[in-house]
Design brief:
Elements: H1 2-17, E1 21-30, E2 35-43, E3 49-58, E4 62-66, E5 68-69, E6 84-90, E7 93-94, E8 100-101, E9 105-111, E10 119-120, E11 134-135, E12 139-147, H2 154-179
Antiparallel strand pairs: 1-2, 1-12, 2-3, 3-4, 5-6, 6-9, 7-8, 9-10, 9-11, 11-12
Helix pairs in contact: 1-2
Length: about 180
Amino acid sequence: MKKIIAAAVLSFVFAACCAADITRTVSETFASGGAFNGTVTFLNDYSNVTAVDGLLTGSTYGSDPITWIWNPTFNFASSFGSQYGGNFLMDGTTCGNDCGSYTYWVTFTWDKTNAPNLVLASPGGVLAEDGGNNINYYDPLVSGTISGGAVPEPSAVVLLATLLVGLGFLYRRRRISQEL
């Protein structure tokens, strides 16, 4: 029984620690009065972004959904140092890693030095094409935050529930066999 409990605990720890992605809430305000608010999903080592679901509002942007990543396999800000991550959060539609129909994008860079606590960073300067936080390279970031803890993956929660139910059945079975 002890081996089963140990295996269950180790399985849960492994699933929780090695979750595929980590989702955080991002809020940014730009010089024009525009704002981006949404969720951004990072790889578990915070080196890149894999998904975005947000809204660019205010100024001339209206209410523009930001729903895809320019190239989720490339971290453009790493050239400024391994502590930086960077990608483009895009509106419109995607047709793969490098093309699409879009109007606005948020140049999004972060510092992962103190991960899991992330901060917005502009390692190449706030209007730098490859290392700033801005909209379309001309609307600089005024303030912003990356907040929230890691959101557990649904698969980790299902794994935990399955393990607990299994342990309950094993415990019940052992108790019944001891009574006989």
